[in-house]
Amino acid sequence: MLRGFYTAASGIIAQQRRQEALSNNMANANTPGYKSDQGVMRAFPELLMQRVEAKSIPPGRGLHVPVNQKIGSLNTGAYLQETIPDFAQGDIRETGVGTDMALINGNLPDEMGSLYFTVQSDDGEARYTRNGNFTVDGQGYLVTQEGAYVLDESGDPIAVDGMEFQVSTDGTVSLAGGDIPLGISYIANSQSLVKEGNTTFRLDEGEALDARQVAGVDFSVQQNHLERSNVDAGKTMTEMMNTYRNFEMNQRVLKAYDQSMDKAVNEIGRLR
């Protein structure tokens, strides 16, 4: 019976964590470039229950042979193993703001690959994002809304000196002092990325390549546009309701076990 407590409790914890991931998706449904997290549920290892008994030999010499009789398997609960971002491209919408940019995937040589703007984190390392909701800081550099520098293909911050500049479809920023190509990175396996915050990723393993130098990579950059999040609000709401019902079901199972234990301790085991 105590094992049932642990099984129901593990289900409650798993559904709670899944609900948290879904709630975060819903909260970022309007965040540009946000990639929804998909929860992966797994079961703990199953136990094979066996009954150990002794079987007498027919001649009746008092000999007994130990025999294991299979009863069946026992599931020991479930848990949320991990959350994996869905890197599918979101819809493109027009904003009319010159510092907004949408990176549109064309033909890619690998179905697991994707393209990203390259930005600089606080520690000076390269980070990757699909969120092109940029702005210009007080020093005239193109930055993200969090203040991270947007990098060019050489890995240097881009100084635009003002809000008036043009970006061509091949990702080139046209300025009075010359043209600067945006740092567009191609990552062959998006699953090697680790999410930092809501729209920024770091590369856990492998390498990021300059998209212009990889054969078969086709992309375009649209100024005055943004990529919307790929969260399906209706589907996410349905999943949240199902997760809540599963959470309540595990609660009822836990309450039933608690009532059974109460009877066992306070009624069956009572001395009269």
UniProtKB/TrEMBL annotation:
Q: What biological processes does GO assign it? A: bacterial-type flagellum-dependent swarming motility
Compartment annotation: Bacterial flagellum basal body
| Pfam families attached to this UniProt entry | Flg_bb_rod, Flg_bbr_C, LlgE_F_G_D1
Q: Where is the Flagellar basal body rod protein N-terminal domain?
A: 5-35
Q: Which domain of life is it from?
A: Bacteria
Q: Which UniProt keywords apply?
A: Bacterial flagellum, Cell projection, Cilium, Flagellum
| A GO CC term assigned to this protein in UniProt | bacterial-type flagellum basal body
SUPFAM superfamilies linked to this entry: Flagellar hook protein flgE (SSF117143)
Q: Does the record's keyword annotation contain 4Fe-4S?
A: no
Query: InterPro entries from the entry?
Result: Flag_bb_rod_N, Flagellar_basal_body_rod_CS, Flagellar_FlgE/F/G, Flg_bb/hook_C_dom, FlgE/F/G-like, LlgE_F_G-like_D1
In this protein, which residues make up the domain named Flagellar basal-body/hook protein C-terminal? Answer: 222-266
Occurrences of domain Flagellar hook protein FlgE/F/G-like D1 (ranges): 113-174
Q: Is Disulfide bond there in the keyword field?
A: no
- PANTHER family tied to this protein: FLAGELLAR BASAL-BODY ROD PROTEIN FLGG (PTHR30435:SF19), FLAGELLAR PROTEIN (PTHR30435)
Q: Belongs to which family? A: Belongs to the flagella basal body rod proteins family.
Q: What is this protein called?
A: Flagellar basal-body rod protein FlgG
